[in-house]
Known about the structure:
Helix content of chain B: 40-55%
Largest sheet of chain B: 6 strands, mixed
Number of strands of chain B: 13
Structural class of chain B: alpha/beta
Number of helices of chain B: 18
Oligomer: heterodimer
Strand order of the largest sheet of chain B: 2-1-3-12-5-4
Helix content of chain A: over 70%
Number of domains of chain A: 2
Amino acid sequence: MSTKHGKxxxxxxxxxxPALFAFSFVIVIPFLLGIYYSFTDWTAMTGTxxxxxxxxxxxxxxxxxxxxxxFLATLSYAILNIFFINLVAFGLALxxxxxxxxxxxxxxxxxxxxxxxxxxxxxxxxxxxxxxxxAFGSASGLAFLEVTFLSNRNLALLAIVVVTTWQMAGxxxxxxxxxxxxxxxxxxEASHIDGATYVQRLWHILLPLIAPAxxxxxxxxxxxxxxxxxxxxxxxxxxxSGMFMGRALLTTEFLALNIFNTAFSFRELAQGxxxxxxxxxxxxxxxxxxVYYNKRxxxxx
Amino acid sequence: MRKKLIISIVLVFAMVLxxxxxxxxxxxxxxxxxxxxxxxxxxxxxxxxxxxxxVEITLVNNKVEIDGALRNFAALYENMFGxxxxxxSFGGETxxxxxxxxxxxxxxxxxxxxFEGYADYTAARDSGRLTDLTGQPWVSDTDMSFFDGQGxxxxxxxxxxxxxxxxxxDILRQAGVDTSTMTGIEGMRAAFELVxxxxxxxxxxxxxxxxxxxxxxxxxxxxxVNAYLALGLDYEDTTIIDMMLDGQVDETRLRHFAxxxxxxxxxxxxxxxxxxxxxxxxxxxxxxxxxFIHQGNWVDPVFAELGVDFEMGYVPHAFxxxxxxxxxxxxxxxxxxxxRSANIxxxxxxxxxxxxxxxxxxxxxxxxxxxxxxxxxxxxxDGPLSRAVNVWSGRGQVYAWHQNTMPAGFGMNVLGPIxxxxxxxxxxxxxxVQLFTEAVASIGxx
Lengths: 301, 446
């Protein structure tokens, strides 16, 4: 046992232990406990007997129209959000990799919204949508601006997209900036000399070169869109109400908010836990598909 | 060498685990009310802390707005009796329920915490956290205690709150409305029409200040619904709420109620109603843009802050054809003494002091701005709507609160959206009755 190799292995394992310890206590054990609780009638009150209820929670949540609706709402939001964030972020990245004056200032300015917490951002934008824009509408006589966007289910969803794009585009921009700056200049210059237009260079040379940045950015925006909670909570709180499959419900209640409400408004913690497990599976599948397709577009140099 | 290393690693692990495991082991709690004996009938707490170091108790409060007043009262109590009372307040951005759940599952057992409705009560009961308060000196001094199924008192009423339809007395006087006629739906309609016909003369934007949008469903889904559940019934009469818990509605009553809500919604400032928050709703009324407001006396402190000083009063939410003179008065929340905590006796003493001493009365009425739940309190509340609540309850014209007996979340998250749709005009009275009936039916099978 005391061969040189074995000794090293022990050392490696010892070095790994602190991280492993932290990981299991902060991630693995809570995660497994969460899965266990989703099969019980857990209430989070210590001292209450926790009973095994099998698949009851899952049966209930699969019949829950609000859960289905929140999935669809989250999906629409995620698709719009991924598209807009990446579009804006890439556009900004192209802008700030040009030889502009004050380029550092622009970068900082575009990045700044990302440093504001989502709750605060939600309240600020709620004021903008409810008061500033409507006041502008009445003052300028533009009737469609007089009624706040947040009272229309589609516009309210778009409003969240606008706010989260504004919040996150600067962050994703930095990833694109790094990728654009590390793209080999000679290829771009060669195509320039060969007479390629700006659009051709962008489309045929730069985009393929920075495909890995797209993989990362789309992954980040996908995960963040699905996990959206704070802006949702503060900006619309799920509203406005609307009809879906013959039921009145909150039309912009995304998955995370739906889980929160299940757990803490309806006090059904175990059902909330079951929804979280489903949420985890959905997010895993969605991100695996996304990474798989994006990876195929990347090229080896 | 290696053995030593492994032993030390195991030891470190053991220490960390021990540190994590300090929460008291769960289980073994007696079902039903706790078994702690009441501490006799002394009206003042012991002047000396019991042996074994200074006693400390913790009170978890769910109203951030009275945090300061509560802290001052706790400091006063510590000065007088040497018992330290830690106040922890949650609310607003740190919602109370998750924060309390986190505390409890983290192994903290505060001596006193707030519970609001039936769901909170069952959770506390099932986890063995209720203490029998029946023998406490303050029990005979209030009608608002929380009783468990066996007739034992398990909750100390934090305050009394009430609401009807609040009005601006100056505006109604100018408009020529006699509020004494507003005790049935005909009188309500007539008054609304009278005010509505003079909006410009009175400088009003609309008749009522109402909120029904997202985040305000506690006004519609809880308080408005209580009119359906309690108006015109005896204080102990639970017919309608019992029907609801069985999945049934009283259709005639529900239709009258829906028509009344439609009357309110169609006479409200639309933007405030659909997207405005609490502040907007209060500002509209406080600035004299509306004659009525659908809010309870807990808004008094906000009016004091805004410098609103006109005379106010309440008329009933009289949605029925018959006369129903009375507003909804009840206790919004109760303190329980946690049977699993360390200093039960000290907690009982503290509550007792709050309910029976002049200092406690002053704290409740003057500093916390509450309508006290105890008969012996001689100080009259100062806020205009609190005074209005006192007028009605002084005459005994009160109807009960049943909204907290609905299943958790049902009022705010299931019924709330239905009100919003009626307010926005997406559904009419028929649609409202139908959706409401279906929603109630969904409670039934359980």
